[in-house]
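re the bet — no i am not wrong, look at it urself. input seq straight from the record:
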Amino acid sequence: MRKYKSFALVFVILAFIGFLDATFLTVEHIFGITVPCSIIEGCEAVLTSKYASVGVIPTASFGSIYYLSIFLLALLSITRKEKKYLLFASKLTIVGFIASLCFVFLQLFVIKAICLYCMLSAVTSLTLFILGIVVIKMHKKWEHADDQIRNLVA
């Protein structure tokens, strides 16, 4: 359980960073504030493109919901000391990774501009995805070991 707790803690930290980033973009979008982009130009082009919202809902708000879900699941895994929450969060990272791939593709090849905040989200999502794959593989290994122990005892 110690390894799972360590992974869950990293999930909590990364999801919190992703949540702050996505929520910042959501709030800025709702209030129509131009997001400052000091390192790379292009934030405004990305954040005002037709892909920045679905109807009246800012696209970043979906990221906020996603990261909040990962955050809460990882926190539940720690507080309730149950692996199933972290395993579910790990599987959920696949959705975030696919969405990030789509958004990076749109930035690079359709909008032809880069949003630094969006790329932070993409890196966060990619890192969560990689960690999620590790957790899923680790879980399968532990399940296999548990099955072997049960077979020896039976």
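see?? The longest strand covers residues 53-54. told u. also DSSP finds five helices and two strands in the chain. so pay up
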